[in-house]
Structure formats: structure tokens, C-alpha cells
Amino acid sequence: MENYSAKFLSIFAFLLLSILSSAVALLRPPSIRAEKLIRDLNLFPNKPINVIDLDRENSRYFSSGQNIVEWRVKFPNLVDPRGVSLEDLGHHAGYYQIQRSHAARMFYFFFESRNSKEDPIVIWLTGGPGCSSEMALFYENGPFTIANNLSLVWNEYGWDKVSNILYVDQPTGTGFSYSSDRRDIRHDEKGVSNDLYDFLQAFFKEHPDLATNDFYITGESYAGHYIPAFAARVHRGNKAKEGIHVNLKGFAIGNGLTDPGIQYGAYADYALDMGIITQSDHDHINKVLPLCESAIKLCGTDGTVSCMAAYFVCNTIFSSIIARVGDLNYYDIRKKCEGSLCYDFSNLEKFLNQKSVRNTLGVGDIEFVSCSTTVYQAMLTDWMRNLEVGIPSLLENGIKLLVYAGEYDLICNWLGNSRWVHAMEWSGRKEFIASSETPFEVDGSKAGLLKNHGPLSFLKVHDAGHMVPMDQPKASLEMLKRWIQGSLSERTIDSVKLVSSM
């Protein structure tokens, strides 16, 4: 039997390599899916930037032995600043000199809590892979949003109302993060999580008064890969006493890609359940599912080339659905897809590339990269890896996990996320599966359905697509607040009803 299995895997690997060979043309230029999902923007400036003059007047240099530079920022077009000073705002931007790199710098924003500096530290990671966290900052859960005239308006439901929040541009080449050496581009979660852990150590050295605060990792989409890997890295560093102890309390994944082996199997089922494909379409699309599942298993044991092949094999499932539904917005199936990200996020680039804003941020001549196909392609060998495997040990150590998903998202749909959460092997699995669904209520309205046992929670969010904080800002803020307080299942007493913001 073992010889048969070995022969089968050998033959299967050969078939996958054949598929990969025929698909290589899709990589140069980027694959059709990559072009559709994210914009083809410049990753590296045209001139060498090993040494960058961030701001001569304010001496924002990396001096010898200095790993991080940070400064307070006040955007020039912030509406209704209420007369607050730069110090009162507590808004910061900075660059971290990535230690395990040749010439890489990681850009970040840090916003002190509007409530108290003793509130938890929350870090937000946007997915892609290769999309900037500024997308979440200005369109989802940051302190303000961008108006059509490119002014900033305070966000009533910004997550900085209950936390000190960090938005990080990563991996290298995303957003305002950069390098002059292409060897710094990351290809897997080891590189990504090490960079984030090292950044966190440098950040707490810069802000020692915050180092004992509770710490939570959050994000969405491909961050379903980043977040578990980063959480495991922090936990490992704590156990080994590597540096500053990080008071990790939990991690939250929104509409994420975490366990592809299970989640790709949910694509056609979800599409059928939502009525966007027929039963005949479903059955035809799922004919490739056994090959996809086998390819993912081979990726987990055989490495890089088979992972690339698995990416191409499995994504025929998603592509087949999209071919049938046409211009449907795969981030929110209630809407039509408009533009390369299915939404118009053009004001983000317009705003951040204004000279006055760039001067405030101290980014010099670096072009803002909202989403990078270069980073996207570099992470393709990481795509089909299962990041659920490291989660059970975190749960067993009492570190909380919240998986939440907007019900109208196709690309990282709630059904696939629910399935991997329920399938995960840990000591509380039986109790979690047996637990009943309870309404998640906000101001008297049913905002979602919640399952919970011990440190594990799963929340299906109503009237939301892929970007829950954008579609349901009030509910998402309440979700974060209750989760970090350990009261996710509690109800509020106000009778005001929730209304989708889009």
C-alpha cells in the first residue's frame, strides 16, 4: 500500500508539474486572477533608495544601532480637529529597519486610543497578499475616512475608540514599505512572522509604557495566513524569553484564508446556497475538487513547486464560478464588481500621494503601493499552505481566537471559515460543535450569529461582505470591544437598529 501511495504521489507530482509548466505563461505577465484581484502598481522607486532622506529638517535618520524612527503626525486636511494639539491626537507614523533584511524598511501608523493609553494594543494586518493596511485605516476601522474632496472626516466607529491601534504595511514592498534589494521580498510565513515579531520588539522599546498592555492581532483576507503565523511567533518568543514579553491575549481573523484544503471545497457549495450558480454548475465545478484537495496535501509535504501547482489547480474552482456569475462583486455578492478591486478605492492613492500628506508622513519620494502584484506573486508558494495547524496549541494555552465573516463574501466565505473552525482538532472541539448559536445583538438588532466555547468564537456577521468594518462599522466596533472585554455574547439595551453603511 505504501509503495502504491508513493507511486501515485510521483505520478501526481508529474501531472502537477505538467500543469505548472503550461501555466508558467500566466506568471509573466501576472495571472488573470492576480490582475483582477489587485492593481499592477510600481513596487520599487526608479532610483536606488538604500539611503533615504526622510526629512532633513526633522533629522529623521536611522542612526547607528537605531531600528525604528517615529514621529507625530497631524494631517493637513483633517476636518473638525476640535482644536486638539499634535500631542493630544497621539497619531504617529514611522519606519522600522527590518533586521533580517538587506535594505528593507517597514512603514506603520500608530494611533493612541481616544479613550485611554491603558487600552489594549491592537495590530491590524491587511491581506492581498500585498495590499496596504491603509486600505483598512481609511475605509474600514481607522480614526477617519476620506471624503470625495480628499479631506479627512472623523470615523465615529474607529477601532481607536477602544484600543491603541497599529496599521503595518507588510510584507516588504506593500504600501510605503520598501527595499532597494529584491532579495528582501518575502515568500512564506516564516519571513513574514519574523519581520512582524522583530518590529513589535522595536515598537515596545520605543514605547516601553505600552509593553505591558494586553495585545491582540487582527486583520482580514490573506491575513488569515499572516495572523496565526504571527501569533505563534509571538507565543514562541514569549516562551523562549527572546526579548520583551508580549502580553498576547488573542487574535481575530476576518473573512480569512486559513485552511485552503477545507475552504476551497466550500466555494461551489456557498455559491449554490446563495443562488448564484445552478446545481449543474456546482456539480461540474466540483469535478476538479478531488485533484485540488490532493494537490494541497502534496503542497503540505512536498514544498514549493507542488504548492505553486496547487494554486493553479485549485483556483480553477474560483475562476469557474466567476466565469458563470460575470461582473458579480466576489467580495460582496449583493453588488456588481466595478474596477480592479471591485470597489473604487482611488481616493486612497490620490490622498496619500498629495505632497502635503507625503511631507507630513515623511516618506520622501516613495510611491504609495495600495496593492502589489509583485508581492502577490512572491507569496504564491505560500497560498495553499494550511495555517490552521498552529492554532490548537495557542488555544490550549488560553489565547483567544475570534473568526468572523460577513455573510455575503464569496472569496473567503463564511461557510468555508465555519467548516475549518469546526473541523479543527483541539481539546474543546466537541463542546464547541455542540454549543448552540446565539444572536449577536447590537443596539437591539440582530447583527450576526455567534458560536463560542472557551477561547474559541465564530461569528457570522449579517449584512456584510468581505470587509466587515466597512459594511457594518458599528457592529464591528462593538464586536472588538466585547471580545477584548470577554463579553462577546452579551447584549446591549439601546433599541436603535443597525443599518448597513453601503
Automatic annotation (TrEMBL):
PROSITE patterns: CARBOXYPEPT_SER_HIS, CARBOXYPEPT_SER_SER. Its EC number is 3.4.16.-. Residues 1-25 form the signal peptide. It is an enzyme of class 3 (hydrolase). The keyword Signal applies. One of its GO terms (molecular function) is serine-type carboxypeptidase activity. It is found in: Secreted. InterPro entries: AB_hydrolase_fold (IPR029058), Peptidase_S10 (IPR001563), Ser_caboxypep_his_AS (IPR033124), Ser_caboxypep_ser_AS (IPR018202). The keyword Acyltransferase does not apply. Keywords: Carboxypeptidase, Disulfide bond, Glycoprotein, Hydrolase, Protease, Secreted, Signal. GO terms for biological process: proteolysis. GO terms for cellular component: extracellular region; vacuole. Belongs to the peptidase S10 family. Probable carboxypeptidase. This is Carboxypeptidase. It comes from Olea europaea subsp. europaea. The lineage of its organism: Eukaryota, Viridiplantae, Streptophyta, Embryophyta, Tracheophyta.
